[in-house]
Amino acid sequence: MSGRRVVITGLGVCAPNGVGVAAFTDALKAGKSGIRFFSELQRLKFSCQIGGMPLIPEDKKLKVFTPLQLHNFNSAGILYGVMAGVEAWKDAQLEIDDKQTDFDSGTIFGIGTLGVDKFRESIYKVDDGNTRRLGSTTVQQIMSSGVSAYLGGMLGLGNLVTSNSAACSTGTEAILMAYDRIKSGRALRMLAGSTSDGGPYVWSGFDALRILPSTYNDDPHHASRPFDADAKGFVPGCGAGALLLEDLESAQKRGAKIYAEILGGSSNSGGQRNGGSMTAPNGLAVKRCITDALKNAETEPEEVDVINGHLTATGKDSFEIRNWCEALNRYDDNFPYINSLKGMTGHCLAASGSIESVASVLQMKEGFLFPNVNVDTLHPEIAQLISTQRVPVSFKNYTSKILIKSSFGFGDVNCCIVLKQYSK
Amino acid sequence: MNKEVYNTLKSIIVKYLPEDVNVTQITPESHLTQDLNINSTHLVDIVLDVEDEFDIMIKDDELNKMETVQKSIDLITLKLEAR
Questions:
Q1: Are A314 and A211 in contact (CB under 8 A)?
Q2: Is this prediction's pTM over 0.90?
Q3: Exposure winner among A149, A287, B3, B41, fewest CB in 10 A?
């Protein structure tokens, strides 16, 4: 292992409860919900007619995109990803050079489903025999690597420019892959992030699985209830998060502001064995992912003081807590603090890992824990494992030294990263 | 030169100009990609907009007859007369 250290020097976010780091930080502290009712989902007879979607005013778009780039543009995932990615780049005080390629900087910007609305628009034209009228930008708006391609061009990135995809662990995986790239000396800076489209065509498959709450259509803010005894399924969301990862020496040379250090992590899969399936996690693999991440980070389980979990508000929440307890061998009062952003944003799917990592880093940097909203009664199976006070339900001043962030996804895939309070 | 066609065409082209080129740089002699620096993939979009604006149809092999503003005007005028 090289002696290189990897730090976070920029953040960007496009979340259902806040667009831009400043608004998002305020939302986190206040426990603000970004979940709304969508009349379109009602018209389309969805069971779950609510979701989390960033609200982006036109003037904010025009600060990042040119009018030409927005001409015939209809790819929400690229919009969110570019907004967050460019914000992280600028937050890191990096210049945008219009002439030169920056071969030391790249991006791994993950996606789940991207460009669905543009794809739909195209399908109608194609089926009408009107392929020649698609326009010139259809390919770039619906290709899986569209978001990294847009960012690569807008920022002049000359290192690895790619998009990973691992369902709901995509965002955390992107950060780990970007970390590895810098750690191994192949890049100085990597923009790591992920994005997800939202709306009916992305959320429909989950609605069809009957895993979304259907009884909160008139009460959206209370619908997403990770940890709660009355959790009724996850609320679908979308958006993007971005983190600028940088070699410590490079960051120091630039005099960059440092948010936190990444110590390492792990990604694995349960192979859809031993209780794992396309849609359910194999507990052995989850625990192994946690312990491998800590080993990779050369960190002891006792050192972890905060967990930012995956915790989507389904029946699997208590299983996740059990896995954490067994992996760390810590229970009751000895369990770290734990929170889940999904109570406020819903489950932002491929974007969840990066948005939640931005939230985790902000907590560390500013010394607070955001509240777990909508926990009226801790689920009894969770209460048997850990103390109620380890699941803070209101804003708490607390400076985490070691935070572990996890994401799990369809396909039985897992990812954990270990973050540390930066000190020289 | 058909002034009306020229002005309408200009209003289409202006949407596809890069940030560092402005409308005053458009002249009848301008080559769309070489002088105005329009990304060649956007020629496809200009054709679609021209078709909509003038209610004409431009065949794929006629794309190369639209290299300059003047050539485009000539082609559009020809099509309008043939209607």
A1: yes
A2: yes
A3: B3
